[in-house]
Write a structure and sequence with these properties.
alpha+beta; 4-stranded antiparallel beta sheet; 4 strands; elongated
Length: 80
């Protein structure tokens, strides 16, 4: 599964036709929408390529969301 962020220069809402079109693509789930960003999860590899092509045709940018990396908490009692 791949997580992507679609960036729009124009304000979007959850009801925007563009958001609805992205959500209706097979293998793509819209997880959240803010005025400039659409977070999506891609479950099929060919869907990611289709989404990137769709975004390019509509003047949008697509960026990969970096994987979350957990850090070990620092102990206040640990000597450095």
């Amino acid at each position: 599964m791949e997580r992507l962020v679609i960036i729009s220069e124009e304000p979007l809402s959850e009801e925007a036709p563009l958001v609805q079109a992205i959500g209706s693509m097979p293998g793509i789930a819209v997880t959240s929408v803010s005025p400039s960003f659409i977070d999506v999860e891609v479950t099929k590899p060919q869907s990611g390529a289709r989404l990137r092509a769709f975004a390019l045709r509509n003047g949008l940018s697509v960026e990969a969301t970096p994987e979350v990396q957990l850090m070990e908490p620092m102990s206040p009692f640990r000597a450095f």
